[in-house]
Specification:
mainly alpha
Length: about 150
C-alpha cells in the first residue's frame, strides 16, 4: 500500500531532493508554469494556480474515496474532519505548500526525505481519534500512528 505521505508529497518526489520553495513536488515545475487547461475535479480550490496535474488530482481523489468508503454515514457526521482530510491530501496541488515540505526534524521517526508541516489545528482535525467511531478503509494506517514507516496515518 502506498503511504499517505507519498501521496501528499506527490507521487513523483525524488528521494533526497532538497526542498525548493518555488518548485512543486508533484510536477517538478513552478506553480506559474503549470498548465490550467484542464480543470481539477477533486482539489478544486487550486484551479488557477496549482502544483498538480489532473492525473495527480485523480490519484488523490481515489485515495480519499477509498479511505472514507468504509462508512458513508460516518462521513456525513464527520464532515469537518473529512473536509480537513481532503485539505491535507490536496497539499500536493497547493501552490503555497512547497515551503512547508522540509527535511524531517527527527529522521529516526520520519523515514522519508521530506515531511509536510501543517498547522496544529489542522493536525488536530485529522487526528486518528476523530475517526475512531467510524474507521477508515485502510486499517493498516490505523495500527500504529506513531510507527516510523507510518508518519501520516489517521
Amino acid at each position: 500500500m502506498r503511504s499517505l505521505q507519498a501521496l501528499v508529497l506527490g507521487v513523483l518526489v525524488a528521494a533526497g531532493k532538497a526542498a525548493d520553495p518555488s518548485t512543486c513536488f508533484a510536477s517538478g515545475l513552478a506553480p506559474v508554469n503549470m498548465s490550467t487547461k484542464y480543470a481539477l475535479s477533486f482539489c478544486t480550490h487550486f484551479q488557477t494556480t496549482r502544483c498538480c496535474l489532473p492525473v495527480h488530482d485523480n490519484t488523490i481523489q481515489i485515495e480519499y474515496t477509498n479511505l472514507i468508503a468504509s462508512n458513508m454515514g460516518c462521513a456525513e457526521m464527520l464532515n469537518g474532519h473529512i473536509s480537513s482530510l481532503s485539505h491535507v491530501l490536496c497539499a500536493a496541488c497547493n501552490p503555497l505548500s512547497p515551503p512547508y515540505l522540509t527535511p524531517p526534524v527527527d529522521s529516526t521517526f520520519f523515514s522519508g526525505p521530506l515531511t509536510l508541516k501543517v498547522c496544529a489545528s489542522l493536525a488536530t482535525q485529522v487526528a486518528p481519534v476523530n475517526f475512531d467511531q467510524c474507521g477508515l478503509s485502510q486499517q493498516a494506517y490505523r495500527a500504529s500512528p506513531c510507527a516510523a514507516s507510518n508518519p501520516v496515518g489517521p
